[in-house]
Write a structure and sequence with these properties.
The chain has 256 residues and is of the alpha/beta class. It has a single domain, classed as Rossmann fold, CATH 3.40.50.720. The chain is built from 9 helices and 7 strands, in the order E-H-E-H-E-H-E-H-E-H-H-E-H-H-H-E. A 7-stranded parallel β-sheet has the order 3-2-1-4-5-6-7, with helices on both faces. The longest helix has 29 residues. The protein starts with 13 loop residues before the first strand and ends in an 8-residue tail after the last strand. 45% of the residues are buried. This is 2-dehydro-3-deoxy-D-gluconate 5-dehydrogenase. Its EC number is 1.1.1.127. Belongs to the short-chain dehydrogenases/reductases (SDR) family.
């Protein structure tokens, strides 16, 4: 991992990350571990090899709890376990998502419910589970990962983009409701980050070239490019930023 800024207040912080063992999530876990944070993360697949590598490379092993985030009782139990191990969670990163491609006319109720369960419902209940601990601790930071997909009006995954838009609405409402508790709630919207999954499934040379043409900055995004922004939103450096969406996409979505 390349050098990144140090945020002293993250040292010893109790951090919980969904999907923290692969893709962007693994880069986030490593980033927080290198800050000296106490990191717990959940994922569906066994991440013991990743945990061992992080311990060897950072000297700061994360706590891995195997969990399907669509199982809300299991997700809440994992959050409780993390808080017992590391103290009240003061940083929550809702990162896990699934952008499986689908056509509108092929979507049935079962698929719709699954897409919302993993991409939106789990986010809400993870927030709900950590909020009392943050209130008791005198504050905290929640970072909800969304995507530029809905901002672009992309087709090919309407259930996913619907959830993305919902994440932004939820983020703003929670920021307003819990701001008096010094709990900050922000969203982070990556562009097309070339994880192994993206490279395996959808990153054809033609698609990559077309997307790069839309970016202002002519470099493809890697998982590491998302870490610094997440650390910033988690740290007291951004203490007066809440209810916002930070776009990290190389300049595909240009606002203002």
């Amino acid at each position: 991992m390349s050098d990144t800024a140090i945020f002293p207040d993250l040292k010893g912080a109790s951090v919980f990350i969904t999907g923290g063992g692969s893709g962007i999530g693994a880069a986030l876990s490593e980033g927080f571990l290198r800050q000296g944070a106490k990191v717990a993360f959940v994922g569906r697949s066994d991440a013991s090899a990743f945990v061992a590598r992080m311990e060897a490379e950072t000297g700061n092993p994360p706590l891995f709890i195997q969990c399907d985030i669509t199982d809300i009782p299991a997700l809440k139990s994992a959050i409780e376990q993390a808080a017992e191990a590391h103290g009240p969670i003061t940083t929550l990163v809702n990162n896990a998502a699934n952008d499986q491609r689908h056509a509108t006319l092929d979507v049935d109720e079962e698929f719709w419910d699954w897409a919302q369960a993993i991409n939106l419902k789990a986010y809400f209940f993870a927030c709900q589970a950590v909020l009392p601990g943050m209130q008791a601790a005198g504050g905290g930071s929640i970072v909800n990962f969304t995507s530029i997909s809905y901002m672009m009006g992309n087709s090919g995954y309407p259930a996913y983009t619907t959830a993305n838009a919902g994440i932004n609405g939820m983020t703003r409402s929670l920021a307003r409701e819990f701001g008096a508790d010094r709990i900050r709630v922000n969203a982070l919207a990556p562009g097309w980050v070339l994880t192994d999954k993206q490279l395996d499934k959808w990153a054809t040379p033609e698609a990559l070239a077309a997307h790069l043409e839309r970016q202002c900055l002519k470099d493809h995004l890697a998982p590491q490019d998302i870490v610094g922004s997440t650390l910033f939103l988690a740290s007291a450096t951004s203490r007066m930023i809440t209810g916002q969406t930070l776009v990290v996409d190389g300049g595909v979505v240009v606002t203002g």
